[in-house]
Design goal:
This protein has 145 residues and is mostly helical. The protein is built from six helices and no strands. The chain has one domain.
């Protein structure tokens, strides 16, 4: 069961990264009706994957891994959760923008630059999450109790 939840957690994490990267690539091109529709679909998959990642991660922390005491004594764990929250907050504006564009996007250049920048920051925060996960897995950065 532990291996299954580890697999599901990694699958959801890779889906989150893939969808954010896809948004980044799509936003580099012209935003026409097709691109806007694709962005909405990709963003919905992103939201579902992030929700699954959070749920599966919580199950791993409390039921299927080393136990909550292990994770809650890890500074990288707190940093990882903070970065995950930051990614979620950064994604709100792009999601609302994709929905507002509808099937006939009226894309303001300034608004598009902001959405591109936010998605870029999401990708950067994901790199930080990966660093924290590696530190956590190696037992680096634990808080003395």
């Amino acid at each position: 069961m532990v291996a299954l939840f580890a697999f599901l957690h990694h699958l959801a994490a890779f889906a989150v990264v893939a969808t954010i990267a896809t948004e980044f690539v799509l936003l580099r091109g012209e935003i026409d009706a097709r691109a806007a529709r694709t962005l909405r679909i990709v963003d919905a998959v992103y939201g579902a994957s992030a929700g699954a990642l959070l749920l599966i991660g919580a199950l791993r922390v409390f039921y299927f891994e080393k136990g909550s005491a292990y994770y809650f004594s890890s500074a990288p764990f707190y940093a990882k959760m903070g970065l995950f929250l930051a990614v979620g907050l950064l994604s709100i504006h792009p999601t609302l923008t994709f929905r507002a564009w509808g099937n006939s996007p009226n894309v303001d250049a300034r608004q598009l630059r902001l959405v591109r920048r936010l998605v870029h920051w999401e990708l950067a925060a994901i790199v930080g999450i990966l660093l924290c996960a590696a530190l956590m897995a190696r037992g680096i950065g634990f808080i003395a109790r």
